[in-house]
Request: fold
Amino acid sequence: TWRQTLAELDGKMRRLEPVNLAAIQEFEEQSKRKEYLDAQHADLSSALETLETAIRKIDR
Reply:
């Protein structure tokens, strides 16, 4: 019946508690930090490649 289903769903929801709402904000902050660090990594990799190319040209 719908009451039994409702009771089951209510029980499942209560087992999920307590929800750490601060974790949501922390996840967003860490996601932004990861994006920043990924961009920094890409920039550094590109700079390293440019430097290695320049060194190879100088060594010729």
About this structure: The helical segments are 2-16, 21-59. The two ends are 82 Å apart (CA to CA). The chain has a mean pLDDT of 96. Residues 21-59 form the longest helix (39 residues).
